[in-house]
Amino acid sequence: MQNKLFKYIFTICIFCSTNYIIAQKFINTARVEYERKTYIKKILQESGDNDNSEWMARLPDYRTEYFDLYFSGNKSVYKTGKESDQKIPEWMSAGIISTVYTNTDSGTYFSQKQIYDQSYNIIDSLPHIDWKITDDTRTIAGYTCRRATGRVCDSLFVVAFYTEEILLSGGPETFNGLPGLILGVVIPRMHMSWYATKVDFPEIKPEQTTPPATKKGKQIKLKAMLKELKESVNDWGNWKNTLLWQAAM
Amino acid sequence: MRTKHLPILLSFLLIATFAKGQFGDKGELRGNLADSTAAKYIEHASVMLLRPADSVLLKFVRSNSLGAFRFKNLDTGNYLIIITHPTFADYTEIVKVEAGDVTKLNTYMIQKTVALKEFIFKQKKGAIVFKGDTIEYTADSFKTKEFATVEDLLKKLPGIQVDKNGVITAHGEKVDKVLVDGEEFFSDDPTVATKNLQAITVDKVQVYDKENAQSQATGISDGKKEKVLNLKLKEEYKKGMFGKVKASGGLPKWYENEAMINAFKSKRKLSGYIIHSNTNRNSLDWEEQQSFGSNSNVSYSDDGSTTFYSNGSSQEISNNNQGQPSNLSMGGHFSDKFKGDKHHLSLNLTSNSQIRRGVASSTTRQLLADSSFYNVQSDSFVSKGIKSNFDLSYTLKPDSFATLTITANMGTLMLSKVDSFASVSLNDDEVFVNQSIRSTADDRNKNSYGGGLNYQRKFRKKDRLLYIVVGLNGSAEAQTGKLLSKNILGLKKDTSAIDQKKDNNKWLSNASFTSSFTEPITKYLNLQVSYSYVNNQNSNTNNSYNSDGVSYNILDPKYSNDFKFNIITQSPGLTLKYKRKKWSLNAGANLQANNYIRTNRTIDSTVHYNFTNFQRMARYEYKFSQFNGFKLSYNGYTQQPSITQIQPLQNNLDPFNIQKGNENLKPQVTNTFRIESHSYKMINDRSAHISMGYNNTYNAFTSFDVIDEFGQRISQTINVARGNYSFWSWMYYGFKLKKSGVKLKFSSNPSVNNYINYINGIKNQTLSSSIDISPGLDYEKEDKYEVSFDFNFDYNSSRSSLNPDRKTQYWIQSHDIELTVFLPRKLELTTDFSANIRQKTSDFTTNNNMFIWNMSVERKMFKKENFKLSFIVRDILNQNTGFSRSVSSNYLTESRYNVIKRYWLVSILWNFNKTAKAPNNGEVEDAK
Questions:
Q1: Residue B2 has what pLDDT?
Q2: Please, what is the average pLDDT of chain A?
Q3: CA separation (Å) from A215 to A70, A103, B7?
Q4: How far is B719 from chain A (nearest CA, A)?
Q5: What is the DSSP secondary-structure string of B236-289?
């Protein structure tokens, strides 16, 4: 009884304090641009391609690519963004191009993946990551982000920075599962990182974040796709793992 | 007995599984969030549930527009909840979710701008918290030096004192046990934990009273309790390993070497230590009560955690720091939790070997009605002992309702001692009264074992509880020795000599069963019924042999005997518990029907005694807040006369002191009243504690001594109806001066004791009182110096009705100053000076003042500063002497014994720490 009375008074107090405007805005719809960097020199060194040191010297350390994430409510699409002005030999460019439609409500995603000459349509549930929450924070694209760590692809250590100010529980590629949008991801073993460079607010129509009805290419689950891919790249040597990991993202 | 109860246990287990299937073991957590400064609901705050062990995010939600959040279908257990919001300071708490229950968490969040102002305040939040009977200190709130030990930390906690030997006193009472994470950590020696673990590894220090398993099960205290100090380690130190290695040596012969390692892998823990020393600074054996029937000491707290330890090993290796010991002790500890913490296994193995040489002397003045004796004694001994103990405990939690613990322990002791003793008594006119010289050589071998089972079962109905404790313990001891003595009596110098061989065999066993059932009557009232059965068997064979010139084979029937005792105790009991939010009241009583059977196997006679006792208790507790509360308690308990008080075994070891039995002894009844109150103020860092107690014993056991003109004493235990009482109190007040940061503390410990005994048929009433006042001061200037002053004034006075004109009054003062100076080049100088001033009295006219000065210089080495090289000199003034003074009714005794005096050591210490504080391989490739 007392408890109820207290609640009642409490509610009245809140309605009375009309001068109060919630200072904090939570973002429910936006476009986020991610910059993906790959430390290609390191990958080359690791793969043992040291004989081409002459052109290696001309290569930039990182390959940089841009992606855009459009989201509204629980639906999002992650696709190739603006072109990078880097000059990188054709064969050194990313072999995998994907467009990812995510629905965090149902916990599923649809990904159109172009892996070299093969295209896949992956429909699967979002990968689960056991995130460890830490107390560390840093600012990315003007948002305060909290650091979390986890593992993907069974063994890869991943660091993510997420902001609770953006309500979508998503991130670049298929990273997800944190109470806010992931604005930064680092996978040391893959020599790759994703960082948001800007967040803006164009109008986002529902059809933008809805997967296309007509799907060309094979429709497949992620696991089956990886299995198939593994068989075909088995003799790729050191590049194999990098490719498979990237395909799994 | 065990098989008899097995079906019942099994059926409970079945019910438990069934119950689980039917109702499920899911719980719910919900709550509301509001702004602490303006009354507003907080929307969109992210509420995360983490696994406390590794901070893995399990679930999260956002609070809705009314600030509400809800988690359904949660597995039961503890969760770490973190609530974050861009405008508010993070809120973190451990919450418990119970099966079929809704846990509510209504929280006010503090705006970051406000929180920033309160930063210092926040840091200290809950430095001391009172959780029911437990006082909990947050270790990080009390700053210690780098690499400080737990002992250094304890010294900083308000209300806790640590003396030179490492003995800990908490709120005026000696701490009996030190546990680590609720588990026994090398049972024999609490200083293993306090001197070897680093303060930085400790998260919380908890202090509480614990009763034995029987008392806990029945809710009725038998008046015995232990003060327990539990060290909770920080989670981050439970990943990886840490420890220390220390080697020290000094000429001509001193050494002090220690090593300890603690290794953790997920829930598995492995610890080991080894100590090898001859400086008496390590391996302190504390007195342990030989309490049969409660060897396995398992307790389940309200939050579901279990603590256990065994106290089967009675202390037998010399403990009083007398003499010069050399000591080697080692131990290993293993514990593991598996299958989702449902199984918990813990093992301890310790071994301690010690050689001790001692020389002691004492002067006693014995007061009679019209005369007095002086007695001077001297004693020298060499003892060698090896003691080993093993204990095991296994806890099984088949579901959230039931907990089963099985314990087992084993111990062996081998002790040999050679002792030579001489005493001379003179009367007031310095005329010879008696003289005694004896030498003894003993070899003892003791084996003990014990096992126990604790079962606790909760039910779906809140507060309904079943508790079963079963225990089985025993020991066998064989002692062989020789007694050679010569005693001379009176002016005529009557001489008698003894030359005997002694063979003693003791055998003890104890079986006990205790069960209780608690049933909630109303929402607030619980009723507990209990029953316990204890069977003690005790057999004692003592044989004395005289020599026929060749060997000792003539039995001396006067000093040989063969007894067997059997005591069966049955006690039904009833307790009522009434609990409200702020206060609680418990009251209970039980009946104890005792059946004693004593068989004298030498003459084949059997005697029966029957006693019925009544024990009762009441306790009232009131909590103003988490930091403030008081407790009132009453205990009335009965103590049986011991077997030796009824019928002592005839012994000719000391012919001037003879014990006589009393078959008409009645049990004594003690009534104890206690008041305890504490308060802690966070902002001012002020803490206060007061406890007071009053004991009154009805039919108290007291001595009836007849002393003849030759100083021979025949004593018997009798009952006195009234007049034995005592009062004691302990007060503490500590606070910090805001401007200077000086910490001041003050404690006082007054006591009054009235004791009645009989001397040569005359009633003698002794009223003794003492008051102890200890002010103290701590100050530290960061990275410059730390200083502490501890003063102690102890006033004692005693007067007995036998000699009303004599009044014994004296002061004992001890003052300590400790100073640490941090010098450049990573050098550190520590020095402590203690002055012990004992007033002379008319009986004790020698100078007893003693000034002890110790100093050490340390240098931290290497980049991580985890190596320490030190040079230590102890007792620079070479004044250390062993000394004790006791004043009791008609005796005044002062004893002196040899101790280690001045020596120096060079010591190197390595503290290692390979714990995963945080995953640090995260941002090596941070592309920016």
A1: 42
A2: 79
A3: 20, 18, 65
A4: 58
A5: GGGSEEEEEEEEEEETTTEEEEEEEEEEEETTEEEEEEEEEESSSSS-PPPP--
Q: Which residues lie below 8 Å from residue B108, measured CB to CB, with a gap of 6+?
A: B33, B34, B35, B36
* Helix A222-232 vs helix A239-248: crossing angle, to nearest 10: 160
Q: Give the integer Cα–Cα distance in Å for A33 and B116.
A: 33
Give backbone dihedrals phi and psi of B261, rounded to 5 degrees, phi first.
Answer: -135, 140
User: Rounded distance, CA B107 to CA B87, Å?
Assistant: 15
**DSSP type of residue B537:** E
Give the model confidence (pLDDT) of B557-576 as tens digits: 888 888 888 889 899 999 99
Distance (Å, rounded) from C-alpha A171 to C-alpha A32?
10
CB contact under 8 A, B44 and A26: yes
Cβ–Cβ gap B56/A130 under 8 Å: yes
Rounded to 5 degrees, φ, ψ at B291 are -105, 105
Q: Coil, helix or strand for B456? A: strand
Listed in sequence order, the residues at least 6 apart from B505 whose beta carbon sits closer than 8 Å to its beta carbon are B476, B477, B478, B479, B539, B540, B541
The position carrying tokens 């309904």 is B464
* Largest Cα–Cα separation, chain A: 82
Phi/psi of residue A243, nearest 5 degrees: -65, -45
Contact between B480 and B443 (Cβ < 8 Å): yes
> Which range, A182-186, B96-100, B666-670, has the best average confidence (pLDDT)?
A182-186
Q: What percent of chain A has pLDDT over 90?
A: 20
Residue B723 dihedral angles phi and psi, to the nearest 5° = 110, -10
pLDDT value at position B579? 84
Search chain A and give the residue with CA nearest B61: A179
User: Is the Cβ–Cβ distance between B793 and B837 less than 8 Å?
Assistant: no
Q: Hey, what amino acid is at A22?
A: I
What is the spatial order of strands in the sheet that B46-50 belongs to?
B57-62, B46-50, B77-85, B88-97
Provide the residue type at B134 as one letter: T
The whole-number pLDDT of residue A85 equals 75
ipTM: 0.82
Residue A76: both structure tokens together = 């999002």
Q: Which amino acid is at B209?
A: D
Q: What is the pLDDT of residues B78-125, one digit of tens each?
A: 888 888 888 887 788 888 888 877 877 777 777 766 544 433 333 334
Give me the total of CB pairs closer than 8 Å, taking one residue from chain A and one from chain B.
Answer: 92
Residue A195 and residue A175 in contact, taking contact as beta carbons nearer than 8 Å: no
Which residues in chain B are closer than 8 Å to A24, comparing Cβ atoms?
44, 85-87
| pLDDT of B240 over the 60 cut | yes
Q: Which residue has the tokens 């205990």?
A: B635
CB-based contact A13 B39, cutoff 8 Å = yes
Closest C-alpha among A40, A104, B162 to residue B153: B162
